[in-house]
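Hi all, posting the design record for the shared folder.

TITLE: backbone redesign
STEP: 1 of 1
STRUCTURE INPUT:
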């Protein structure tokens, strides 16, 4: 499956979960101890907003603090919806996955960045569902694709850089449970 398709499908899953958040739920705790539900959605929306300028060739320095702080404002769901189309278009553009993008840690192929985005959106969509008592069942095809990709990235990229916490022992061997455990979550 093409990484741009994985990204698009993960965004669709996140969009459905964000749309289901009721007004009184934004301050609920999430599996990410640093963020409540609003903070988590703000984090992912910020990443979505970063995607177009990064695929246009801009560097982190070029973008600066444009997406720092609260990007959600008074309409979190509306800001999310507005960020979706441009992010998907950037990842899906002709040649986007082959071009070099400039990230804070160095230059990488667009496919690497899109894969990171896909994984982050997929796992955080489960976090949103868990926090808001939403649908926690992730698309099995996306889970399998993420597991395959993450096998090469987990230790050297994510855990070594402190981007994820320690893995936990999965409660069973279901692929979704294993994926979440590898990202430090207990399903």
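Okay, here is what came back for every position:
SEQUENCE:
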């Amino acid at each position: 499956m093409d990484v741009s398709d994985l990204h698009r499908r993960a965004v669709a899953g996140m969009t459905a979960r964000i749309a289901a958040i009721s007004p009184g739920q934004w301050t609920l705790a999430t599996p990410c101890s640093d963020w409540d539900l609003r903070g988590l959605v703000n984090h992912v929306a910020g990443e979505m907003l970063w995607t177009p300028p990064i695929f246009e060739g801009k560097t982190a320095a070029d973008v600066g603090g444009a997406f720092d702080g609260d990007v959600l404002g008074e309409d979190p769901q509306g800001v999310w919806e507005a960020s979706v189309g441009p992010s998907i278009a950037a990842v899906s553009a002709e040649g986007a996955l082959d071009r070099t993008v400039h990230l804070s840690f160095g230059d990488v192929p667009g496919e690497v960045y899109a894969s990171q985005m896909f994984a982050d959106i997929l796992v955080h969509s489960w976090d949103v569902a868990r926090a808001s008592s939403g649908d926690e069942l992730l698309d099995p095809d996306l889970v399998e694709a993420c597991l395959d990709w993450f096998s090469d990235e987990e230790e050297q990229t994510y855990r070594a850089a402190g981007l994820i916490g320690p893995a936990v022992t999965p409660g069973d061997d279901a692929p979704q449970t294993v994926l979440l455990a590898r990202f430090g979550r207990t399903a």
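COMMENT: Strands lie at 100-103, 106-109.
Let me know if anyone wants the other runs.
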